C-alpha cells in the first residue's frame, strides 16, 4: 500500500478548507445519481469510496442507505474522517484492490466504487490494472463513478499537471472511458463542468456499469 505523506501533512488544513462534501450542485447530483444506480442494481453488496479523504462523501453515501466503506492511504485523513463520522467504517488502503482481499470478500459482493479525484494520482501505465482489480470481484451490474480533472486535447489524451500535493494527471473523458471498457465497464453517462474561480481545469464525472 502506498502512503500519502503530502495528504498526511495537510489533513487538518484540508478539513478546514473543505468542510462540506461537495463544492457544486453538479457534484452533489452526480454522487446522488451514482447512489441511486447502486440501489437499483441487482444484489445487495458493498460500496467502496476510494480516496475518501476526510470522509464527508462517504458519510453522504451511508446516509442514502448504501453499505459503504471509506478507503484512503493517508492515515491522517482517515483520523479526521473517523473523528467526524464515528458511525461510518474507514480503512487504510489504496486504489488497487488486488492486495486487499478483506475488501473484496465474495461473501459481501463489491456492488460499487466511487473514486472522486483520486485516480488522478495513479500512474497512467498502472490505471488499467487498478480498474481490473475492481472489475474482478464485482458482479455484472455493479456501478463505478469517477471524477477527475480533464484534458480536452484529443492529441494528448493524458496530461500531467502541477497538483499541490502529489503527482497527478488529467484525462480526456474519451480516454478514461476507453480504459474502463478494457476492464469490462461500459460507460453509462458523463457530466462536464468548465473552470471557474474554484476549479483550474474542466472536470468530468463519469459513471460506468460492469458488463457480464
Automatic annotation (TrEMBL):
InterPro entries: Methyltransf_25, SAM-dependent_MTases_sf. SUPFAM superfamilies: S-adenosyl-L-methionine-dependent methyltransferases. Keywords: Methyltransferase, Transferase. GO terms for molecular function: methyltransferase activity. This is Methyltransferase type 11. It holds the Pfam family Methyltransf_25. One of its GO terms (biological process) is methylation. The lineage of its organism: Bacteria, Bacillati, Actinomycetota, Actinomycetes, Micrococcales. Residues 47-136 form the Methyltransferase domain. It comes from Kocuria rosea subsp. polaris.
Amino acid at each position: 500500500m502506498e502512503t500519502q505523506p503530502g495528504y498526511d501533512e495537510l489533513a487538518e488544513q484540508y478539513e478546514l478548507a473543505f468542510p462540506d462534501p461537495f463544492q457544486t450542485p453538479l457534484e452533489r447530483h452526480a454522487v446522488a445519481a451514482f447512489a441511486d444506480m447502486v440501489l437499483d442494481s441487482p444484489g445487495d453488496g458493498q460500496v467502496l469510496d476510494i480516496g475518501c479523504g476526510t470522509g464527508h462523501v462517504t458519510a453522504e453515501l451511508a446516509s442514502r442507505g448504501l453499505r459503504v466503506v471509506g478507503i484512503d492511504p493517508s492515515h491522517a485523513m482517515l483520523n479526521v474522517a473517523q473523528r467526524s463520522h464515528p458511525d461510518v467504517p474507514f480503512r487504510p488502503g489504496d486504489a488497487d484492490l488486488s492486495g486487499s482481499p478483506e475488501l473484496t470478500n465474495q461473501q459481501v459482493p463489491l456492488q460499487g466504487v466511487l473514486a472522486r479525484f483520486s485516480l488522478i494520482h495513479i500512474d497512467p501505465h498502472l490505471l488499467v490494472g487498478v480498474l481490473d482489480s475492481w472489475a474482478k470481484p464485482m458482479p455484472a451490474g455493479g456501478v463505478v463513478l469517477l471524477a477527475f480533472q480533464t484534458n480536452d486535447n484529443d492529441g494528448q489524451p493524458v496530461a500531467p499537471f502541477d497538483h499541490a500535493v502529489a503527482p497527478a494527471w488529467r484525462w480526456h473523458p474519451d480516454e478514461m472511458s476507453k480504459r474502463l471498457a478494457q476492464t469490462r465497464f461500459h460507460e453509462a453517462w458523463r457530466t462536464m463542468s468548465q473552470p471557474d474561480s474554484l476549479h483550474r481545469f474542466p472536470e468530468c464525472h463519469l459513471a460506468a456499469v460492469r458488463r457480464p
